[in-house]
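To assess whether the prediction recovers the assembly geometry, we first specified each molecular entity separately, as shown.
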Amino acid sequence: MVRIGSNGTKVRLAVVPQIEAIDWNFPVTVEEVVLLGRAADRRLVPWAPASARAEAREILDKLGIGQLAHRHIRNLSGGQQQRAFIARALMRKPELLLLDEPTAGVDVKTRHDILHLLHSLNHEGIAIVLTTHDLNAVAAHLPSLVCINRRLIATGTPQEVLTPSVLSELYGADMVVIQQEGMLLIGDVPSAFKDEHARAQHPQEVPAAHFGEQPPPHAHDEGAGHTHQKEG
Amino acid sequence: MHYLTDPWHVGFSRHALIAGILAGALCGLVGVYVVLRRMSYIGHGLSHAIFGGAVASYVANINFYLGAGIWGFVSALLINGVSRRRQIGADAAIGVVTTASFAIGVALISHVHHLTVNPDAALFGNILGVSISGLYILLGVFVFVGAVVFFRYRQLLFITFDPEVADAYGVNSKRYDTLFALVMAATIVSTLQLLGVTLIAAIIVVPAIVGRLVTDSFGKLLVASMLIGALCSVIGIYISYYNDVASGATIVLVAATLFFVVFVVTALTARRRLSRLGEDHGSADIGGGPSVHVG
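The predicted structure of the complete assembly is given in tokenized form:
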């Protein structure tokens, strides 16, 4: 349980770590990982009760990996690994689910599936907070964003937050935001090409004039901001 | 057959065999957590640290188990505390804390001239010289560690597997790190005089890595590692008894030989399985591939 908000309301929290931080050679099966969601339960014997096993099985079935319960965690795909850890979190019956980069290092279809899964969990009443650096495929599709780079920079919907000025402050570099048919696209151009592009677009101006609130269409440098997204 | 039964009829070797079984199983059990937490060097380091505590206890005229036990526990807590700093890490923390503690022991030996302690016994161990009180202490520690592992199985599994988020799941990682430090200190203090400062690390690490080569299940690994530890000790003591070789060294050599055998056998088995899979795929391609009709 953690206390949140100004009135200190208690909520049941579960955390899903970044899958890249997990030791995938650790000798545990998917079911054992899921049952760790109840590790804090007062129980003297090492084995889990039948009710917890049934519950774990139910959650795994719901997430579509019930048939993999007895498989070693190394023998799962990226999406299945992420689901196994979401299943462990669900064993705690969380009201608030925190996920650290849930789509890092997964393919397009897996990313799509994970976001759909989080969306449906959110509809079941679980508040979801996740971190991501993926602005186009993840951040732009979530209902609420919080941008943090050492301090709070902006909060709001993707339309409100994903603007050149916010992104510039967030990443410390200029970025391009394109809106097309209600869709947001955030792009960048390697700095080596920036001056060349600027000269081609505006031959009468010096390139530095394009930095700031209204960046040129292709101006960008590498940045290191964090975008936290909230669902629910 | 009498080769197997003879050592059980002689008092000192019977005690050594019982101590070997308990010490091997205890180190094997604790070793699973040590290896999986990637702290394999802690056995080596902590035994050196406790050497400092043993000398200090002797100088201060304090009971060895009490003095060295507290010293070891504090050293293990210091390692935990220092390794929590992200810039440092567990391996460097072990290096700093334990060598400093060992150095205190060496400094005391060189400074206190009337010291009659024999460093060889502490460094290389002597399982054949185990006392009845040493045996009871070993049994007590074995029961204590066994109870901790049994009653706190899931919590210890969690902090070993995924320590970063343990607290978010209601598992107090600091409390279990402290409990683990106590388990480590008790294990090393109770087995130090049997296996020696320099050899104890092998008995902690080898059974767990041999077990890891043959099973992917955490529960089975705990049992396998205990059995392997006890088995290596017993075989080592038999060889030592009949060949008049140092017991600690013999146990380590048995464990190391077992490791190499299992390593080679599992590598060959894996290679054979891979080549069989390749053959199956090859024949499936020939038989099941799409056919092309011309004309």
